[in-house]
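Appendix B. Extra example for self-study. Work through it before the problem class; the solution is given directly after the inputs so you can check yourself.
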Amino acid sequence: MMVEKEDLGLSLSLSFPDNNNKKNTQLNLSPFNLIQKTSWTDSLFPSDRNIETCRVETRTFLKGIDVNRLPAMGDADEEAGVSSPNSTISSVSGNKRTEREANNCDQEEHEMERGSDEEDGETSRKKLRLSKDQSAILEESFKEHNTLNPKQKLALAKRLGLRPRQVEVWFQNRRARTKLKQTEVDCEFLKRCCENLTEENRRLQKEVQELRALKLSPQFYMQMTPPTTLTMCPSCERVAGPPSSSSGPTSTPMGQAQPRPMPFNLWANALHPRS
DNA sequence: CTATGGAGTCCTGTTACATCA
DNA sequence: CTTGATGTAACAGGACTCCAT
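Solution. Structure tokens for the complete assembly:
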């Protein structure tokens, strides 16, 4: 039961998603790779087009072969379990409910087969608790690829003795859990970034204050050492080396309007030694 | 070539149930 | 035994793409 929890395969990454997923592009707004878009689709089906082709193949395939038949199960609603709940009869949302209720009956049958002692044939949904083995296999499969094409779904469902719909739901929920976990990680990371920046800002503000104070006291001005954090030359953005001891405060663009030269010049000149 | 509807899948949010402290 | 918290299977609904017509 805790299998998923222990290994969500999370990692913080700054790389942008490959965005092979043609849908829900808004999910990629995060700077982080929220859900690992693994390469299985890429390797198996290099383009979306091919994925779709595969789906079509599967549809055709399904018409001929009743792959969803569970061992010793009633098959009144087999077709419904093959794919999305929207798939039967029509995609009008009103039908989803009907079909899912049918699926529930299906599941109850299944549960009884699995040794469940629930016997009420009511419409209330009964939750199937996946066995450890089933969870482990699903998890393993998820590690390889976090989405399934119809063939994979069917194969997995067959292997696990579940309905394809259940496998589909499991993967959906698993992706949601992964994303949630990743969001938490991202949130934590951004929080730390924010804290660091706040601290940095505080330090810089303090430094600015110090510099202003020094600007007003000429006796300290000449002996001033450059602030340790201001190591970037404001004009060329190069990192400054050790400050040169004596240079005329004349070349900085920032000093032009100042009644007094800017302290920047003390080390900025080290970057632009005039010949 | 374009418009349209069906089919399939995904994501997000919610609900309902199972389990455990 | 009851109860609240937690995990998760299942569901609802909207969005999107592809494809056939």
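Self-check: The CA atoms of residues 193 and 199 of chain A lie 10 Å apart. If your reasoning did not lead you there, revisit section 3.
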